[in-house]
Amino acid sequence: MLTAFLIATSLQTQTPAPPASTAADAASERAAAAAEKAAAAAEKAAEASARMADAAERLSQSLTQPPPAAPAAPAAPAAEAKKDEAPKEDPWKGTVGLGLIALSGNASTLTFNGLASAERKTRQWIYSAKLQAVYGRSRLPATETEEERTQVVALAAAAQVRGDRRFTKVVSGYLLAGAETDHIKSVEARGIGEAGAGISWWDEKDEQGRSTWLRTDLAFRYFRETRFQYYPTRMDLPDVDLGGPRVGISLGYGLSKDIIFTEEAEAVPNVLGESRLLFNSTSKLSARLTESLSLGTSLIITYDSAPPVGKVSTDTALSASVEVAF
């Protein structure tokens, strides 16, 4: 009986076992929590992998692409750039021309004129040279002597060299030296020296190939003129000096690509002695036949308010010539 009593008491004091369903739910919750943590870890791993891939791509691009160029300085306005642009250096270029008039019969005349000019431009200098000559001889109808029948009607020559130093594309200073002779006008020799400034107002060539330019000079000129009368009788004449301001203009206007009109004029009043004014003008129309060959017609006017004794003040010459460019 005692043994049965002890066994019954022991069974009453033991804790009852939990139900089977409660243990299964706890295990399921732990498994769900573990799965959630695993999913969160996988998501973070995927984000880290994407970031690493992006970083690797940027590194690859930086290694394969050239470094970016430095930012360019702001461009100057087109007008300012054109104004400050240095002129190109050109080789020597120029023309050689020849005109001729020949008559025969009861009276014969032979007159020819030649001219040559050359110019070269560099970034700082402009060099130019001019040569000009004219000769004419006439044989009149029968007179008393052969000497009276043959007469020289033109005998003159002139040469000039000039050097311009560019200060800007527009303004330059220059020196000029030259010599002239004209036996018909009783000028045995005339030496010329000049210093001044030149302004190139424009010098352009349009899309059709037409050239236009305008240049002016303001300078002081001095020359010594030795005089001798060659015709009709030979005699010595007093020499004269002249010095004064010189105003010059050179204009060119292209009527078309192959036809151009030019005008060169100058005026020199004397301020060193007696009143005297020299004025020269050359108007010319040129038509180009080929790249190097052209025809030209020119009108030359020379005026001297105080010419040698027995000479008139104004001379004019109208001539046609063939010119070759080089």
UniProtKB/TrEMBL annotation:
Domain of life: Bacteria
Biased composition (Basic and acidic residues): 80-91
Region Disordered, annotated ranges: 9-91
Feature: compositional bias, Low complexity: 20-53
Descriptive protein name: DUF481 domain-containing protein
Organism for this UniProt entry: Hyalangium rubrum
